[in-house]
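User: I'm preparing a small set of examples for a lab meeting where we compare how different chains pack in three dimensions. I only have the primary sequence for this one, and I'd like the structure in token form so I can line it up with the others. Please keep the answer compact; I'll paste it straight into my notes.
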Amino acid sequence: MGFSTDCIHAGQEPEPHTGAVTIPIYQTSTYVQPELGRHKGYEYARTQNPTRAALEANIAAIERGKHGHCFASGMSAIDVVFRLLKSGDHVVAGENMYGGSYRLFNRVLEKFGLQFTYVDTSSVDAVRNAIRDNTKVVYLETPTNPMMTITDLAACAEVAHAHGALVVVDNTFCSPFLQRPIELGADIVLHSTTKFLNGHSDSVGGVVVSNSDEIAEQIGFLQNAVGAILSPFDSWLVLRGIKTLAVRMKRHEENGIAMASFLANQPKVKKLYYPGLPDHPQHALAKRQMNGFGSMISFDLGSKENAKKFLDRVRLCSLAESLGGVETLISHPESMTHGSVPLEMRTRLGITPGLVRISVGIEDIEDLIADLENAFDGV
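Assistant: Understood. Below is the structure token output for the 379-residue chain.
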């Protein structure tokens, strides 16, 4: 089926008892068993839930994967993937990633004996040179958060697989509408379903998608053993959101390109990061690897004072963490999403005090630009 059709129908057969076209919210903690040793496919809601199962099948289909497992947050999804490893295993990870991921790796997982090397994954050679004999995972974000750097997924997958390592990709910034890493060689794809998949800023969740039966069995075991599951109501909210994913992403993309063009001609912007602009260093790669350029943009205003003046004046845009909602969300990475990243590392990566990140929503673009024009007047 086509992408839009899968968004609406995959994993969502009409409810058999009533014919309801919308999957019900199965808000139950347990299931009655007809007799000892026999059940109807469901035993306990941490282990199985029909609403969550529908969402897991739906996301697996639109990512062109085979298995999906949903979790209580994007971070819990990342955490469970690294529970596949053991003490002494090594991970090559992108040096420019979401600050929460870095915090998990640096302040939690290293305590359990996992080893991490951080590299610029836009360089395939840097990835290759960082791989060791004990490397088990190459962990990638593309585009990166917040610097919008693009990684060649197919090339990195080839390098990783040649050394027996799994490729794990956080695809949150793109959604499956713009990029499907499994088709490019990834073994595991992660999302914060909080973002574009849900799209309405009213649910927190995460998902792990894979093609391997063996990996899926392990993830399913960990999902039940650890218990950080997505609730039935949140599962229903994300299912509802995905039904409009394709039409929303088209508008996000349209507005993102228009906003980037506006910012490119704004003299108070010192640097602009958006892969859809021809002067982006990986523009050609993004054009080849993605089905569009999305609506995530970062730009530098030169100083924290300028960023504060700008952010204090936005009215239509919402100053908030997160991204991917129908409303435009604007943030200050240094003090918000990447506050847990060490200063030296932030500085080297370009996450400066003047950097602003915007997730362009689906409002009328004229209104969004007018809001930013007013904010620029205060800088």
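A couple of notes for your slides: The longest helix spans residues 245-264. Residues 148 and 273 are 6 Å apart (CA to CA).

User: Perfect, thanks.
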